[in-house]
From TrEMBL:
Source taxonomy: Eukaryota, Viridiplantae, Streptophyta, Embryophyta, Tracheophyta
Name of the molecule in the record: Pentatricopeptide repeat-containing protein
Keyword Transcription: no
PPR repeat start and end residues: 1-25, 92-122, 123-157, 224-258, 325-359, 427-461, 528-562
GO MF term list: mRNA binding
Origin species: Saponaria officinalis
Signal peptide span: none
Sorted UniProt keywords: Repeat
InterPro entries: E_motif, PPR_At4g14850-like_plant, PPR_rpt, TPR-like_helical_dom_sf
Gene Ontology process terms (BP): RNA modification
């Protein structure tokens, strides 16, 4: 009685006062100790009952009460000692079933299988237990092999067998086997059981059969919170976030209160879809339910706010978590890094190290990109040292992040050394990292070579692979290779992806084939602002002014969202085509019609446009009224116009400003000297050349291919 009430102190007192103890009293105290978490005490009493003056032989109940303690202690040697006792006493199958479970939960699945194979009278519990043991140890293929063997021997499937088999099919994404398991569940009349149905439902979701999963869910007579949570989690993990949000709202309408498991899935969805309103509402619910400070809920909440870039809220949640773990820190470090807040990510990493908590591989993968972006090579190398000490060097994700960090910190040789290590099993991300590293370091031929090697080694390029290698094609004007990569993208089914379309439009334009860019642009169904801007820039660079202006006009008619890049491209086109009035109209419409403040590059473009037409008074008026301090590009554009129109007085003013901004650039002095020479002012031309010599500068000599 006292054991069942959880009053072990009273139970021990009564047990110690007993003059004579029988098997029932020993079983009760051993079972009570195991259940209450006193596992070592339970084992000690198991020894005592046999070693006393009136030693009592344990029975099957004793062993079944002892097994939970063995599972928790995870001591295989102890398991084998008990196993030896079981063999000597020749117990029934229920004890052997318990042994299978104990070995599996202690991580010794081979011993569990030995027990199973040695059993003469296997029942449905034996099959279910060994299957569950394999699932516990992540051996999913073995589970399905057992399922086939059991079917072949006309074994009866119970709930544990079905749940274990469907879990294995789910993890292996084996839809056909999953359907076979579902058929067995129907045949054994257990498909309507809540646990079985939930397991089958999860399997269908993970195998991409959303319709079947939903149908199973709708057929459930009593949908408990576990079923709702399972389907929501399954939808999230399988890439159906919108459907998951819809189901969550439906669950709330059914007056069901979500638990922390449900909330973890919902926070994950809200983070991915930027569902600010839903996320904040669910946060309020977690506050009222008092589960916001639980570590798992707090971590998920902090991660959600960090991914949105709401760092004050993320920090508030972080500080409220009572017992922070490394995942808590990772949530913020990754959030900062992903939102470009590299310094904050690095500072938080330092705080983590000072707190005494050990970083895990997720921490490393979060902080290394921050080191890469902020070019903090020394810190990156320190992290590399920690990786070696902590044994993370064999982790593929960690090594990929290291390769990326060294490449972006201009230590390409280090990145290559890591990449070429013989024991490194490269994945698609590894190849993407080295390809983008080559491009970053202007090693364009090496980038193309790496892309070809990746395909030769049997890895399929992803969208990131294509986007990473195309800049190398553009810089080399390697049109044949670009067309081959285009064919590869089509073969992989990427042609409908907007981002892929954008890079090919840009690549063809930079390779001089605007006609192919134009054809690809016209064929694209899903265009975004970048698509239009890329085509516009292609027209501008190749001097197709009329086409650029027409395209800009079409953008306005189709209500495409215009940005500063759009205006820079169309102004550049107007500049090349000498469309002064059109250019001025477009420039002033930026602020007046679209509320986009012109940047320095826009002013430089319009100054160059006006300067080519000799409209110097308008240029001076524009420079005087502009809200920004003119930079070297603006004064350089003015100097170029002065040279074109031999305006030596204004050129001197432009040069003075250029020298102030870029005092060591010899081109400015040479440009002024040439302007004076064109105007016949030879003394002034000589003076400009002397200023060049006095400043200790030299004109960089020109070169010719001839």
């Amino acid at each position: 009685m006292y054991c069942k009430m959880g009053r072990l102190d009273r139970a021990r007192k009564v047990f110690d006062e007993m003059r004579e103890r029988d098997i029932v009293s020993w079983n009760a105290i051993i079972g009570g100790l195991s259940k209450d978490g006193d596992y070592c005490e339970g084992l000690m009493f198991f020894g005592k009952m046999q070693n006393g003056v009136n030693g009592i032989v344990p029975n099957s109940v004793t062993l079944l009460n002892l097994f939970p303690a063995l599972c928790k202690l995870e001591d295989v040697k102890l398991c084998k000692s008990v196993h030896g006792f079981v063999i000597r006493r020749k117990f029934r199958s229920e004890v052997y079933n318990g042994l299978i479970d104990v070995y599996a939960k202690c991580g010794s699945i081979e011993d569990a299988r030995t027990v199973f194979d040695g059993m003469r009278g296997r029942d449905d519990v034996s099959w279910g237990t060994i299957m569950a043991g394999y699932v516990h140890n992540g051996c999913f293929s073995e589970v399905l092999e057992l399922f086939d063997e059991m079917k072949g021997k006309n074994g009866v499937m119970n709930k544990v067998s079905v749940v274990s088999s469907s879990t294995a099919a789910s993890e292996l994404r084996d839809l056909e086997k999953g359907k076979e398991i579902h058929a067995c569940a129907i045949q054994n009349d257990i498909d309507s059981d809540g646990v079985v149905a939930t397991s089958l439902m999860t399997m269908y979701v993970k195998c991409g059969e959303l319709g079947m999963a939903t149908e199973l869910f709708r057929e459930l007579e009593e949908k408990d919170l576990v079923a709702w949570s399972a389907l929501i989690a399954g939808l999230v993990q399988s890439g159906f976030p919108k459907e998951a949000v819809s189901l969550f709202r439906e669950m709330l309408q059914e007056k069901l209160k979500p638990n922390s498991v449900t909330l973890l899935s919902v926070f994950s969805i809200c983070a991915e879809l930027s569902q600010h309103r839903v996320g904040k509402s669910v946060h309020c619910y977690s506050l009222k339910a008092g589960i916001d400070s639980e570590v798992a809920t707090g971590n998920s909440l902090a991660s959600m706010y960090a991914k949105w870039g709401f760092f004050s809220q993320a920090l508030t949640v972080f500080h409220k978590i009572r017992h922070k773990n490394v995942v808590s820190w990772n949530s913020l470090i990754n959030g900062y890094a992903q939102n470009g807040k590299t310094q904050q990510a690095i500072e938080l990493y330092r705080e983590l190290m000072l707190s005494g908590m050990k970083p895990d591989s997720e921490t490393i993968v979060g902080v290394l990109p921050a080191c890469a972006i902020s070019r903090q090579l020394y810190l990156g190398m320190c992290v590399h040292g920690l990786i070696i000490k902590s044994g993370f060097v064999s982790d593929c994700h960690v090594k990929n992040a290291l390769i990326d960090m060294y490449a972006k910190c201009d230590r390409l040789s280090f990145a290559e050394t890591l990449f070429n290590e013989l024991d490194f099993t490269k994945d698609e991300v590894s190849w993407n990292a080295i390809i983008s590293g080559y491009v970053h370091n202007s090693c364009f031929r090496e980038a193309l070579s790496a892309f070809c090697r990746m395909k030769y080694e049997g890895l399929k390029p992803s969208t990131i692979s294509i986007v990473s290698v195309i800049p190398a094609v553009s810089h080399l004007s390697a049109l044949p290779q670009g067309m081959a990569i285009h064919a590869c993208a089509v073969q992989m089914g990427f042609q409908s992806i907007t981002r892929i379309g954008n890079v090919f439009i840009d690549m063809y334009a930079k390779c001089g084939r605007v006609d192919l860019s134009e054809r690809y642009f016209d064929e694209m169904e899903n265009k975004d602002t970048v698509t239009w801007n890329t085509m516009l820039a292609g027209y501008a660079v190749h001097g197709h002014t009329a086409r650029a202006v027409t395209l800009f006009s079409n953008m306005r008619k189709k209500n495409v969202s215009l940005d500063s890049v759009t205006f820079l491209s169309v102004l550049s086109a107007c500049r090349h085509g000498g469309l002064v009035e059109e250019g001025k109209k477009i420039f002033y419409s930026m602020n007046d019609d679209f509320h986009i403040e012109p940047k320095l590059e826009h002013y430089a473009c319009i100054v160059d446009l006006l300067g080519r037409s000799g409209l110097f008074s308008e240029i001076l008026d524009l420079i005087e009224k502009m809200p920004l301090e003119p930079d070297a590009a603006i004064w350089g554009a003015l100097l170029g116009a002065c040279r074109m129109h031999s305006n030596s007085d204004l050129a001197e003013m432009a040069l003075n400003n250029l020298v102030r901004l870029e005092p060591v650039n010899p081109a400015h002095y040479v440009g002024l000297s040439n302007i004076y020479a064109q105007s016949g002012k030879w003394v002034e031309a000589k003076t400009a050349r002397l200023k060049l010599t006095d400043a200790g500068l030299k004109k960089i000599p020109g070169r010719s291919w001839i």
